[in-house]
């Protein structure tokens, strides 16, 4: 059976024509007013004609449609029929193309759906929830994440077994000509009065001194100390009270998201300690690698510190005080890596958020609607 629409609703009433059977009369003899496929449709013959350009509606809000005026029963001989009907609009259903048959998202006309108040509330909450989760995931996607890991290795193999050290210390009660730096380690190095890449700045009108120096140490246990051992004439009672402004190893890392002990002794104040006491700082140096998003690596060292203050004596009398930095290296390396969430993972997460939220919201709305309809039926049963 084939349906064909005539564009003008004001033309003659519909007629049924058999392709092989005799032509029926224009009056469409037989049962009149029966809709196609045996469904009962109210006659709108008495409805006012629509104005040109737009469909008219009756007082009930139903669009103007011409009444059915034909017999839709198939002929007795089983021949095919062509059904002509009048329509004020274009046919709503058309034969799908071969490509349309693969559409798994079939469309349902809005006239067949029923909006509800609870559905609107759930939809609004669902959209707000999706927006919140989307913004949270977007913030995480834009923000760079710092991932740390531990392993046993020497990260800076190209350094030649050396570690760069930067020291900045003030001794407000010791003259600059008495201040010196000594370095020694277990490989036999013993250097007194290191002067390369170092600077002495007088303080308090020459009564004190600020020592700044950059030097290298071997990757073996050892120490470096600030003392008067390199002075030509040894003072009797040197005052070793001090303030440490900076002590760092390797490259300087100033990364906001990395909180490490790269300058653990920075700001250490020993001005109120015993002037004749020696100070021991015991350092545990931890190799650290920082790798940015481009893959560039920087090598630095964190360290933990413990200190003690004492007055040393020997069989010949009191030992001249000094500020000792005794260090040892840890075999564990800490690596910080900048990472950003991959795009495919971000898209997958967003799809999961949207799909999961809509699915749960749909189930919730369906449950509420089903319960509401059941309650209405119960109430109607009580009324009757």
TrEMBL record:
GO terms for cellular component: COPII-coated ER to Golgi transport vesicle; endoplasmic reticulum membrane; endoplasmic reticulum-Golgi intermediate compartment membrane; Golgi membrane. The chain crosses the membrane at residues 116-135, 343-364. Residues 1-61 are annotated as: Disordered. One of its GO terms (biological process) is endoplasmic reticulum to Golgi vesicle-mediated transport. Keywords: Endoplasmic reticulum, ER-Golgi transport, Golgi apparatus, Membrane, Transmembrane, Transmembrane helix, Transport. It comes from the Eukaryota. Residues 203-365 form the Endoplasmic reticulum vesicle transporter C-terminal domain. It is a multi-pass membrane protein. InterPro entries: Erv, Erv_C, Erv_N. It is found in: Endoplasmic reticulum membrane; Endoplasmic reticulum-Golgi intermediate compartment membrane; Golgi apparatus membrane. Residues 101-191 form the Endoplasmic reticulum vesicle transporter N-terminal domain. Pfam families: COPIIcoated_ERV, ERGIC_N. Signal peptide: none annotated. Residues 18-30 have a biased composition (Low complexity). Belongs to the ERGIC family. Plays a role in transport between endoplasmic reticulum and Golgi. This is Endoplasmic reticulum-Golgi intermediate compartment protein. It comes from Camelus bactrianus (Bactrian camel).
């Amino acid at each position: 059976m084939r349906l064909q629409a005539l564009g003008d609703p004001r033309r003659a009433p519909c007629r049924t024509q058999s392709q092989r059977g005799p032509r029926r009369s224009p009056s469409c003899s037989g049962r009149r007013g029966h809709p196609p496929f045996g469904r009962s449709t109210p006659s709108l013959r008495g409805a006012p004609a629509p104005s040109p350009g737009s469909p008219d509606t009756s007082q009930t809000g139903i669009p103007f449609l011409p009444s059915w005026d034909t017999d839709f029963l198939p002929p007795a001989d089983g021949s095919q029929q062509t059904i002509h009907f009048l329509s004020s609009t274009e046919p709503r259903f058309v034969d799908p193309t071969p490509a349309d048959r693969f559409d798994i998202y079939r469309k349902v006309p809005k006239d067949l759906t029923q909006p509800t108040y609870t559905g609107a509330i759930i939809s609004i909450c669902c959209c707000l929830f999706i927006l919140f989760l989307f913004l949270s995931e977007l913030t995480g996607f834009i923000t760079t994440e710092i991932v740390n890991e531990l392993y046993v290795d020497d990260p800076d193999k190209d350094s030649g077994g050396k570690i760069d050290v930067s020291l900045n210390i003030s001794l407000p009660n010791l003259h600059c000509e008495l201040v010196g730096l000594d370095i020694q380690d277990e490989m036999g190095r013993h250097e007194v009065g290191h002067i390369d890449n170092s600077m002495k700045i007088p303080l308090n009108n020459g009564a004190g001194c600020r020592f700044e120096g950059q030097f290298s140490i071997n990757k073996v246990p050892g120490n470096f100390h600030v003392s008067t051992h390199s002075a030509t004439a040894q003072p009797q009672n040197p005052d070793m009270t001090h303030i440490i402004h900076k002590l760092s190893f390797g490259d300087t890392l100033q990364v906001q998201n990395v909180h490490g002990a790269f300058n653990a002794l920075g700001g250490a104040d020993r001005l109120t300690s015993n002037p004749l006491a020696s100070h021991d700082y015991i350092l545990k140096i931890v190799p650290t690698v920082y790798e940015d998003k481009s893959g560039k690596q920087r090598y630095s060292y964190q360290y933990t510190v413990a200190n003690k203050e004492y007055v040393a004596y020997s069989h010949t009398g009191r030992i001249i005080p000094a500020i000792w930095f005794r260090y040892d290296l840890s075999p564990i390396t800490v690596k910080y890596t900048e990472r950003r969430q991959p795009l495919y993972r971000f898209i997958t997460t967003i799809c999961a958020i949207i799909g999961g939220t809509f699915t749960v919201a749909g189930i919730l709305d369906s449950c509420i609607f089903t319960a509401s309809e059941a309650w209405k039926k119960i109430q109607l049963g009580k009324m009757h």
